[in-house]
Amino acid sequence: MIRYGQQDITQADIDAVVDVLKSVNLTQGPAIARFEEAVREHVGAGHAVAVNSATSALHIACLALGLGPGDWLWTTPNTFVASANCALYCGAEVDFVDIDPKTYNLCPNALEAKLIKAAEQGRLPKIVVPVHLSGQPCNMRAIHALAQRFGFKIIEDASHAIGGRYLGEPIGNCRYSDITVFSFHPVKIITTAEGGMAITNDPEVAVRLGLLRSHGITRDPNLMTKPMAGPWDYQQVALGFNYRMTDIQAALGVSQMTRLDHYVERRHEIARRYNEMLDGLPLTLPWQDPDGYSAYHLYIIRLQLDKTNRTHLQVFEFLRARDIIVNLHYIPVHTQPYYQAMGFKQGDFPEAERYYTEAISIPMYPTLTDAEQAEVVSAIKDALAQ
Ligand SMILES: *Cc1c(COP(=O)(O)O)cnc(C)c1O
User: Fold this and answer.
1) Bridge-partner residues for 274, per DSSP?
2) What is the mean pLDDT of the chain?
3) Domains of the chain, first to last
4) Residue 59 beta carbon below 6 angstroms from any ligand 1 atom
5) pTM here?
6) Quick count: other Cβ atoms within 10 Å of Cβ 4?
């Protein structure tokens, strides 16, 4: 069985985890700051707050930027539901912006057109969440220019994108955003089993993220709102959650970070081989924007349905029957039953819907062998053969 994504766990990872298990602090210990520092330094940003998932990071990122009832958050329909759900957690409303047909990312032109209309109606979004699908960065310069013009905040959902670059700089440095969020789920670029991180250059936002991660409680006298009663004192100054990462996870993350660049290089090598081996088939291969260096979380092919008489479902089922566990990223969020119950309809975002009828994520992970890759390619050729 060859899965579409797969973690890589080395003996060094295992040793790092075991060291924590034998130590005093399983959680709220020193490994958290070490992991935050490793990521913060890698991306070149000011502050990093580790949490128990990217979903939690998105939630507290929205709260830290002041999202609440009466506000709007816009994102792409071509994402995991978490990128939109974070707004609903805050009592805000969600809307979507259709995708660019080449990058499959949120389209800046569609965003501009929608913003102009929203400005007329007095319904501008407070936050826009661009998602770097498959690790390929969105057109952040254009989105950031629109943020300046229309006055919204930006949270980059970079769940796919740690290790990638935009205009020569690491994704996550927040040059064009207020907050960047990473995921460390096992299918992603590096893993902590479950885990996520919120990155920002704004020290006040960082303080709020830190409070929201742990019940809104502080032991820092500078953050207390009444005089400290004694050395035992902690004060709840906001309503937060328990979104903490454990030291066990953070130690795994520190160890994984040492191989991040190698992982992304290997993913590019695999992509180059796919590009060659799949050339000439009735497929659209992933287009790469020259402004970006993708982290290549996913290698997404699109069937050219006018050039084959195989259906999307047939190709998908054929590959799964050959034990190649392909996947589909993503079912457009606005077509989910929960979102349809809110009023979204089929046809609302046609580019994302068309993409969904053609896309297949084929196996892509650093330990995929050349032989396995050849097996995937041969199965795809068989699937498309008459
Ligand atoms: C995986 C993923 C998430 C959620 O990450 P978790 O760490 O599992 O909460 C959010 N957005 C995108 C785009 C993702 O791929």
Assistant:
1) none
2) 98
3) 2-257 (3.40.640.10), 260-385 (3.90.1150.10)
4) no
5) 0.98
6) 23
